Each structure stands twice: as structure tokens, then as C-alpha cells.
Amino acid sequence: MINIPKGTKDMLPAESYKWQAVERIAERVAGMYNVKKIRTPVFESADLYLRSIGDSTDIVNKEMYLFTDKGGRNMALRPEGTAGVMRSFIENNLGETLPLKLFYIESLYRYEQPQAGRYREHHQFGAEFFGSELPEFEIELLCMARDFLSEIGFRDLNLHINTIGCAECRAKYNAALRAFLHEHEAEICGDCKRRAQTNPLRALDCKVDKCKALYKSAPRIADYLCDGCKAHHAAVLSGLEQCGIAYECDENLVRGLDYYTRTVFEFCDGKLAVLGGGRYDSLCEQLGGKHMPCVGFGCGIERLIAAADARGIALDKPLPNVFVAATNGAREREEARRLVFELRRAGVSAECDLMGKSLKAQFKYADKQGFMFVATVGESELDSGSYALKRMRDGHAETISRDNFAKDASELVNAERQGGRHA
Ligand code: HAM
Fold first, then answer.
1. What is the value of pTM for the model shown?
2. How confident is the model at residue 12 (pLDDT cuts 50, 70, 90)?
3. CA end-to-end span of the chain
4. Structural contact between residues 162 and 251, judged by C-beta atoms closer than 8 angstroms
5. Residue 299 pairs with which residues in a beta bridge?
6. Is 60's C-beta closer than 6 angstroms to any atom of ligand 1?
7. Which of the listed residues 63, 122, 279 should we mutate to test ligand 1's pocket, taking the one with most ligand atoms within 8 A of CB?
8. Helices (H), 184-221
9. How far is the CA of 304 from the centre of ligand 1 (A)?
10. Distance, CA 81 to ligand 1 centroid (Å)?
């Protein structure tokens, strides 16, 4: 037997309704903010990611799925969504009317050590907004993230927020941090020694306890911010307060990708980030486009569903509506098929037996599948021209005539849906 690759997961039929509910809510909330959908390829030139995510990050250093295609080109499976969207933005000249707000729901590939909440294939609902330097841009994006999370049913995910300044303040801060790391070289882990050379900011994200303890006394970015970055950050925070979004300032939040400028944030479930993002004002120029201020987020759908499950948040589970059971005669089965097509045409989801099951076994199947109603077609029903429609939750039955079957069944189904018992 060939097994599924390590660190990947099938989406099985018993769980797929959760994914469908999340995607429906994502699309609905995006629609409320006039955010348009984009889809980019699952593989791109490896260079795109090297130039955007940064060559001192774990993603680029250790986690990319790289391959050479038959034409000898160096390609990569997309490890994150922002770079591909930016490539498309530049290539298709999408910035004629600004702001431009885009979203995507896509799979991503990182060769990570598999563990709870960390997969080699995961999925994100992501949003990327192009065009504005104003703090309103972050506020709009974070309101959309908040609305999405609260429509799913979350009330308690903590928003951690920080600013990592612009290129100028970060250059000064990096120099101070590098000096601090050199001073404490004997105490820090091997990775941080390397980070001190390549990208000191990364050290603040270190998970090793002794490094974490030491960095409490490291220089603080807040002391190196220019007036513009300070004012921008203060305006973002006051905008969040006006919108009723609670937040926690976290000076060690630096994120794992190098393209960010100024604001970075994460909505966390305990230690795991469910949704993360920030501002990235230089990426467009870095990839050959013009100056283009941007903000964006990515929300991990696997982590989101696990966090919802852990809290007992029930995601919408639409149930099939009417099963038309039939005794085993050819006329009865044919009539059942006809009724099913009429129901479907009337917008009612319906099914009849396809396996030659006994009437009893058909009822058992309908019950297991969660059908709201079951109608039975037997010889006497054919003769009388009316059918009993049994409500499965309490066994209550109504007789409806053949002539009005689809219309009456549809009304009963709608009443049941509005009763809030079924999605
Ligand atoms: P990221 O923080 O690398 O950011 O990923 C965003 C979210 O995807 C994480 O908060 C997490 O929920 C989920 N995630 C990441 N890696 C994994 C994994 N191995 N297994 C399961 N879930 C995972 C980005 O990808 C940026 N592109 C976000 C962004 C968009 N920034 C600006 N625009």
C-alpha cells in the first residue's frame, strides 16, 4: 500500500463541511469589504520566493520544495501566498485603480518538522491590499480579519501587534541588536549566532529558553523608531481601539518572513498563530515594480478548524433534504427517480436508492446520512397518488399529493431550515 506523504492530510467527507463553512464565510466577509478573488499557480520560479521571503529565513533556507522542471528551470512549490500575488500584480498591471483588495484560498508547501498545527501542506485564507500608506489600511484589514474570525464563532483569539519600523529605523536597530548578540555570543544558541550575522531581528523569534530569557534585556525596537513610524503605529493602535479590537503589544513579534515594514501582527490560539500578517511597503519595488504600500494577512485553515473544534464551535453543516425511498418494483423505483428530479429542480437536495436496497435498509441509509425527510413510494402510494413525507427528527408525517409534491416538500424543508434545526 502507498501511504499519504508525512506532514499532509486528506480532507475526508466527514470533515469537509467544516472546510466548506470556513470558505463560505471567508468569501462572504471578503465580499462585504469589496475584496476580489485571485488565484495564482501552485508553483513559481524559485527566484520569486528567494527575492521576497528573504534568504536568511527558515522558509527559504530549509523548507522550500524545490525542483528542476523538464526545461531545466528552477521552480518551487509555493511556500506562502503573498509573493505570487505580488508577481501577478506587477505582471498584469493590476494597480491602475487603487486601492486594490484581493483574497485567495490556497494550498502551501513547507518542508517543516510535522507536529500539531504544522503540516508540509497547509491551506490559507489570505488577503492582500495594495495602495495606501495610511494607518486606515491596517485598520480595514484587521477589521476584516476580526469579522472573519468572529463569524466563525471565535471571541477569544488574542491579537498581538508590533512595529518593526521602516528600513531606516531597522538599520539602526539591527546594528544595536547585532552588537548585543556579539556581546552575549557565549550564551546564545548556534542558530542565533548565525542570525547575528545574517538577520539579527530573527533572533527575537528564537524558541530556545535561554535565548528567550536573555532577549528580555536586548535593545528594544521602540527606542529606534523614527517619528513617522512612531506616529503610524500610534494611529494603528488608536484605530483598533475605535473599532473595538482588543490587542496586546508584543515587542518580540517579528514574524518569519523578511518583507515586512512597520506593522506586524498575529491572532493567536495559545502559542500558535492562527492568522498572521503585516505591512510590506517595499516588496513591489524589490520584485521590479514601482513603490507600492501594501498590507496583508494569511490565516491557516487547519489551525483555524482545530481551534474551533477545541472550543466546541459548531460549523454550519448543511443536511441533505429529502430521501425518496421505494419498494423494489420497477414502477415504484421509476417514480422515486422522477420525484427526486422534480425536487432537485425545485431547489431541494434529494436522493433515491441506487443500490437495490430493501425499504428498511433505505430508511437506515437516509437516517445515517442525516436526511431531514423521507418519502416512501409503494404500490398503495402509486394508486392513491399521494405520499407520506416523514420528518426524521420526530417521526411526524404529512401526506402530500403527487401533483404538488415538489412545491409542498420544498415548503416543509424551508420551514424546517428556518426552525434553525438545520443549516
Ligand atoms: P505565515 O505566518 O507564514 O504568513 O503563515 C500564515 C498562517 O498560516 C500562520 O499564522 C498559520 O496559521 C498558518 N501556517 C503557516 N505555516 C503552517 C504550517 N506548516 N502548517 C499549518 N499552518 C501553517 C504568511 O504566509 C504570509 N504570506 C502572510 C501574509 C500575507 N503577510 C502579508 N500578507
1. 0.95
2. very high
3. 39
4. yes
5. 125, 275
6. no
7. 122
8. 190-198, 209-214
9. 11
10. 9
